[in-house]
Write a structure and sequence with these properties.
The protein has about 130 residues and is mainly α. The chain contains 4 helices and no strands. The radius of gyration is 19 Å and the shape is globular. Keywords: ATP-binding, Cell membrane, Kinase, Lipid biosynthesis, Lipid metabolism, Membrane, Nucleotide-binding, Phospholipid biosynthesis, Phospholipid metabolism, Transferase, Transmembrane, Transmembrane helix. InterPro entries: DAGK (IPR000829), DAGK_sf (IPR036945), UDPK (IPR033717). GO terms for molecular function: kinase activity.
C-alpha cells in the first residue's frame, strides 16, 4: 500500500506504528541482548524513581541504547539478506553496528553513574 503523502493521516500513522511495534517485538523475541537491555533500562528507571533522581537522562540513555540495538538488528538482517556468504564488508557492517551499541551502552553507564550514584550514596549513609 502506498502512502497518500499526508503526514496527518491517522490511518497511515497507525499502520506505521504497527510496523514499528512488529520490529520491536521481533527484536525482543529474537535478540537476547535487546531483552537484557530492556530489563536493565527498566531497573535503571525504577532505581531513578526510588532515589528521586532525574528520570530524563536515564530515559534518554536507555532509549539511545535500545534504538541502536534495533538498528543493529536491522543491519544484521539486511547484511544477511544481501550477503548470505561470509564477506569482509559484511563483517565490517555488522561489527560497526554492534560497536555503536557498545559505545551507547558505555555512555549509558556513565549517565547512570553520574545520575544515580550520588543519591544512592546518600541513601546508603555515605553523605
Amino acid at each position: 500500500m502506498r502512502s497518500d503523502g499526508s503526514a496527518l493521516n491517522l490511518r497511515r500513522w497507525w499502520r506505521s506504528t504497527g510496523f514499528a511495534w512488529a520490529g520491536i517485538l521481533y527484536s525482543y523475541n529474537s535478540q537476547a541482548n535487546f531483552r537484557i537491555e530492556v530489563w536493565a533500562g527498566v531497573l535503571a528507571l525504577i532505581a531513578a524513581a526510588f532515589l528521586r533522581a532525574p528520570l530524563a537522562p536515564i530515559a534518554l540513555a536507555c532509549a539511545l541504547v535500545l534504538s541502536l540495538e534495533l538498528v543493529n538488528t536491522a543491519v544484521e538482517a539486511v547484511v544477511d539478506l544481501a550477503s548470505p556468504e561470509l564477506h569482509p564488508l559484511a563483517k565490517v557492517a555488522k561489527d560497526a553496528a554492534a560497536g555503536a551499541v557498545l559505545v551507547a551502552s558505555a555512555g549509558a553507564l556513565v549517565v547512570a553513574a553520574v545520575v544515580l550514584l550520588p543519591p544512592l550514596w546518600k541513601v546508603a549513609g555515605g553523605g
